[in-house]
Amino acid sequence: MRVMAVLASVSAVVALSGLGLSQGRQTLDVHFIDVEGGQSTLVVAPSGESMLIDAGFPVARDADRIASAAAAAGVKQIDYFVNTHLHADHFGAIPGLAKRMPIRNFVDHGSLVETGDRSIAAFNAYAAARDKGRHIVAKPGDKVPLKGVDVQVVIAGGEAIAKPLEGGGAANPLCRDWVAQEDDPTEDARSVGTVTRFGLFRMLDLGDLTWNKEHLLACPNNMLGTIDVYVTTRHGINGAGSASLVHAIRPRVAIMNNAARKGASREAWTTVKTSPGLEGLWQLHYSVKRPPSPAPGLHETAESGGPDLNTSEPMIANVEEPEAHTPAYSIQLSARQDGSFVVTNTRNGFRKEYAAPR
Predict the structure, then answer these.
(1) What pTM was estimated for this model as a whole?
(2) Which one of 45, 316, 349, 356 is at 20 to 30 Å from 173 when CA atoms are compared?
């Protein structure tokens, strides 16, 4: 019943958005799926090929939600699964999803660098599913060959692109205020970051890339240029998303893949909200106030959540803390080659058009 409720809500918004699967795709369609503090983003090309960036937690809930979103989008297989890094909140549902639909290609940075028992067990379950498809080790400058869409790897395994993207490469004056943080030895720092381009439209997803590593893309030169849609790094948790990067890329829209009790840390949220030229901040969850994390340098180190760390209510997909019987709502985006796009909240049907750049 719960899966059917999610499928019904997503299908309704597909109709609202005028995506008309039977009429053929003219747009790049992106579904930001609620996996409650993990990450999972389904990208569907006009060709019909699909790319899934991350896959949430190792629970049936997330595999069901991804499969439901795929079915509503007319996707029968995942052509490319891009795993930003080897943490279970980003690849955990893959073994379950692989039982529900074929996954053809697996793109990640290679092998696990963490040595904890739980990390190894989770990775082994993922690797068993990965071994049944084609494994591609991502390197900076590589492209994910999604038909009809340009998907470029800009950072992977802690190494960034050596040449700027088209429109990038200018000196970044914001670098003068950047201060290094403690190096992060975890998988986060090895995240695979991609820029997805469809005509004039560009979307950036850096997974959980950490503060010091994202600096490689921003300073001394902005290697990325400007971005239309920025998927907030690390769910909006501190330790990523410095102004030297976020303000330099000047996103028109930001999508925060937070949860009720994860993400939307004050410094990270404020940096996004105050980014020059920002036209919209959308969140997967309303963020409730909670105390700081006891892990300085790696997680939330300041006040997080609360009423003043949320965007406007119509632009939040889920406004209540989740319960087993409630549907999960997603944020959907449909981009056109001229750079214009529309974002829709499946909870309430609220949608906003963003015009083509002049």
Answers:
(1) 0.91
(2) 356
